[in-house]
Write a structure and sequence with these properties.
- There is one protein chain.
- The chain is mainly alpha-helical.
- It folds into 4 domains: 81 residues, no CATH class; 101 residues, Arc Repressor Mutant, subunit A; 68 residues; 96 residues, Arc Repressor Mutant, subunit A (Orthogonal Bundle), CATH 1.10.10.
- It has 14 helices and 11 strands.
- The strands form 4 sheets. Strands 1-3-2 form a 3-stranded antiparallel β-sheet.
- α1 crosses α2.
- The radius of gyration is 26 Å and the shape is globular.
- It starts with a helix and ends in a 19-residue tail after the last strand.
- This is TIGR02678 family protein.
- Pfam families: DUF2398.
Length: 410
Amino acid sequence: MRGRGNMAIQRARRTLRSEVNSAQAQERKQACVHALLNRPWILKEEDQDLYFSIKDHYEELREWFMDQAGFPLIVTRSLAKLERTPVVPHAWMGFEEFREVRDYVFFTYCLWYLEGKTEMDQFLLSDIVEEVREQMAIGGLESDWRHYHHRLSMARALKKLTSLGVLIMVDGDENDWAQNENKNALYECSPHSRYVLRRFPQDLTTYSSMEDLADPILYADTPDGQNIRKRHRVFRRFLLEPVVLDRYWDDDSLPYVLMQRRYIMDHMQRMLGMEGRRYREGLLFFHPELTGEAALFPTLSGVSDLVLLIAGELRRQMNQEGSRFYMEPDGSVRLERSEMEGLLLRLQERHREYWSKEFRESSSALLAEFCFEHMEQWRLGEWEDANHFLVSPVVARWNAEYANTDFDLD
């Protein structure tokens, strides 16, 4: 009896170790998925553990991303990159450091210049800017390095390439050149430049519109091919956008979201650890932890606190008899610009002691602009016209209060 008891204990221990190992492997795999979705790429020289975890799970990750979203996964001897193509592009998907369209133009022409370089090649800043200027002139585009704003724009492009690891700064600084065109800098080319731009499934000259560029792969013109395209577009939006309400879907995609929600939720939970919930306004996903690889709402910025306070204030006022605020059939709330300013003015008077100096001293009009911009970025609201803002029903899922406040929140 004692022997059989020892064997049972050993089997239980092996089962427990297996379950622990399986949970750890799943956790590492989810970390890989989040990193691939939220970083430009993962360089082996900067994060070896993550890079080798992606290599360990390469086959499963490659198949899942391609089967569900049509995203190609590239792994080389030095980097891992997921080629993410949005269905609906948004301003926040660009480089935060860039200020003008010209920044992206210079960034792209710099990549053109680097195509003729090999790893470890060194060149001067004056060389790259002169060749870029000449190539742009051939295409009918202007770049004048005597113009301060052009130099500043090029400096932002070069700095971004350096931060990505595409360029290696050997000596000098592009900011010095931006201030004085007689200054110079020395760069070295890394092997990563050829992986920055997305790869297209066919020659660019065969595309006739920007919409045609939205598909990351070619789809067969058959019912099966179109069904795969539909699944990819749905997953791509859920993977890359913070909120996708039912009214954001086209007539082809919405039935798929409604009928296949359990399938979608299962995949998002298994591969990303995201918890999905079906609400009246749409299928929403939440991160179970307070922090993560992705940017999460509410953010660490104080403007997220303002949005949460607005949500609670709207709910309280709508519950009062005779309130001028009411819910639209789709669950959204329409606010005039002046009404948002009035809400924030009351909140400022009530909670001033908890706010930062910037928010305490800002006008209600400026606070409203902060909130409008933040809510638009997180798909928590949108402008109906120049004076009416639709607050998304998603906002009703949150509320906020300050600790130790005497104000009673219902």
